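Quick one: structure tokens for this chain, please?
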Amino acid sequence: MQFGPPDWPAAANLTPHETGLGDWSYDDFERALTQGVSKDGRVLQEPMKGIVPAAKSMLPTERKALWTYLRTLPPVAANKG
């Protein structure tokens, strides 16, 4: 099942696997959410870039709770195609 326009890139791996958020810190994650910039300095693409205004309006404890939840997911390798 696919959501969004077919030309959108594949969803990012948000699990703590090395192909996802495995080596990200909370600060990296918060920067991506609130500034739309990835750990390596790339500007996030839609639809992730579109969440920045909503993420900025979240309380810091809400962003931290989201990060804490994502860290509990089983590490899963990114699907490369």
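The CA atoms of residues 16 and 22 lie 4 Å apart.
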